[in-house]
């Protein structure tokens, strides 16, 4: 029987989703729990890997198991064996040909920053710290340019080998809370939601860094267009740190994560 589950995790202590030799991964702790629950080695396939320090609210995985445990009870059994920073939120039977990775139609990531003259310790593990005010209108204007189908080579970090760097970004939405003055966020939090059909290595973190640069007045609409036209990574903003990034949800065209 094949199952589809939604997993949430706080990524600070992990080398990412995927098993690696240099440290503990989310995949390793989840598979360890699944194996103990079902009594046989059980592998879990995710919608995609998340990097070290990146979080997830709605990572989707599939796994196969022959079990008499009621499906609705599986999360309780698994969570009893997981560390407190990883949790199975839901589980359901699915089609035998369902694949968490290859069946995915779109993903939504959130990149979070906070604007403050000084560090705010309660936000440090989930947000990037920006000291200076951010021009929200400038950021939204550049976000509009990023939406659509483009060659995102200029928004890809080195070290990745893919056949094509063309991706479709369906939406880039900015939501903020806090104090504003003349259209600038002077103190508070800003969430950047990016939804697309797929993402390159560090693509969302580079998009977020580019929008922050736009908010700081370091880049404008024409600069972002030039990045897309030339594919020159050096023209875009910096790659923001991993702790601000969260995989929010994965869509499969069936109305569910």
Jot down its keywords.
single chain, Alpha-Beta Plaits, 2 domains, 11-stranded mixed sheet, 5 helices, globular
Topology:
Elements: E1 2-9, H1 26-38, E2 45-46, E3 55-64, H2 74-79, E4 86-93, E5 106-115, E6 128-130, E7 134-135, H3 136-146, E8 148-151, E9 166-181, E10 184-196, H4 203-215, H5 221-230, E11 245-251
Parallel strand pairs: 3-11, 5-6
Antiparallel strand pairs: 1-3, 1-4, 2-3, 5-10, 5-11, 7-10, 8-9, 9-10
Helix pairs in contact: 3-4, 3-5
Describe the protein in words.
The structure is a single chain. The chain is of the alpha+beta class and 257 residues long. The chain has helices at 26-38, 74-79, 136-146, 203-215, 221-230, and strands at residues 2-9, 45-46, 55-64, 86-93, 106-115, 128-130, 134-135, 148-151, 166-181, 184-196, 245-251. Strands 1, 2, 3, 4, 5, 6, 7, 8, 9, 10 and 11 form an eleven-stranded mixed β-sheet that branches. Helix 3 (136-146) runs parallel beside helix 5 (221-230). The mean pLDDT is 96.
